[in-house]
Every structure is written in structure tokens, then in C-alpha cells.
Specification:
This protein is of the alpha+beta class. The chain is 40% helix and 17% strand. The chain binds cytidine-5'-diphosphate (CDP) and magnesium ion.
Length: 139
């Protein structure tokens, strides 16, 4: 299991608000290398599959509908200690609790529309990266 990779999405709110460029700049200027990158969209079915770990949670239905509401950017990122460092860079799930300067503090408006996804473990980073990217799409 690789411990130097994580997976991220720029969520529909941040894409719609014009923050793709600023978020990618935050990512690369904080030492993350982009291994794979894709501008795409999730159908409701695909969003449900991606977030299936949360299917018993009260916010699941709204989350699936939000994540399929518009295009997203998906990426695999590489850096030493990628999972932990990227979670630190994005900040708390609730942007009102995210540290100043974090991506969610800067670009997110609410706990559901919170600008970005970041993997929570090496195992999930591998599963999530494989969900979007083939071997031919990684550099
Ligand atoms: O994204 P993160 O790992 O920080 O949070 P999570 O607990 O794995 O939840 C996944 C996503 O569900 C969050 O990023 C939010 O978009 C959404 N969520 C929500 O809408 N309401 C909550 N109370 C918790 C999460
Ligand atoms: Mg999570």
C-alpha cells in the first residue's frame, strides 16, 4: 500500500464558484505533485457508489444529490505523508471550523458544499483513485 498518495475532488460548489485554478495552485504550491487529473461529472448512481460508506448517515441523500449537481475535478496527488498533510491543507469538514488559510476556510460556504474531498486513509486513497483513473492516466 502506497503511503505517499491521496485522492481529491474539487466539488461542484467550488467549480461553479470559479475556484478550480486557485485550489490547484494551493495544492501544487504546498508541495503536492499531480499524478492524475480529470474534469468530469458524477451521475447520481456514481456519486452514491463513491460515498457508499456513508449510506446510513442522515446526510447521504443530500450528499449524493449535491455531488451529482455539476462538474467536478478529480485528482491523485503525491507527497510524503500525503493523507495527513492534505487533510491539514483542506481543513475541517465544517468550513466555519476550518483553520485560516485552509482550502475549506478560503473556498467553502457550508458543511455540505465544502469545496473539496480528501481521502482519509491509504486504503481509501487507492480505492478512490481507482474509481476515476486507469493506469494509463497516471504520470
Ligand atoms: O469530507 P470529510 O472527510 O471531511 O467528511 P466526511 O465525514 O467523510 O463526510 C463526507 C462529506 O459528506 C463531507 O465532506 C460533506 O460534503 C458531507 N457531510 C454533510 O453534508 N453533512 C455532515 N454533517 C457531514 C458531512
Ligand atoms: Mg471523509
Amino acid at each position: 500500500m502506497e503511503s505517499n498518495k491521496t485522492f481529491t475532488m474539487i466539488k461542484p460548489d467550488a467549480v461553479a464558484n470559479g475556484h478550480i485554478g486557485a485550489i490547484l495552485d494551493k495544492i501544487t504550491s504546498n508541495g503536492f505533485k499531480i499524478v492524475a487529473l480529470k474534469y468530469t461529472a458524477l451521475s447520481a448512481e456514481k456519486a452514491g457508489e463513491f460515498y457508499s460508506v456513508h449510506k446510513e448517515r442522515p446526510f447521504y441523500k443530500d450528499l449524493v444529490s449535491f455531488m451529482s449537481s455539476g462538474p467536478i475535478v478529480a485528482a491523485i496527488l503525491e507527497k510524503d505523508n500525503a493523507i495527513e498533510d492534505y487533510r491539514k491543507l483542506i481543513g475541517a469538514t465544517d468550513p466555519s471550523k476550518a483553520e485560516p488559510g485552509t482550502i475549506r476556510n478560503l473556498f467553502a460556504k457550508s458543511i455540505d458544499a465544502n469545496a473539496v474531498h480528501g481521502s482519509d486513509s491509504d486504503e481509501n486513497a487507492a480505492i478512490e483513485g481507482n474509481f476515476f483513473f486507469s493506469a494509463f492516466e497516471r504520470f
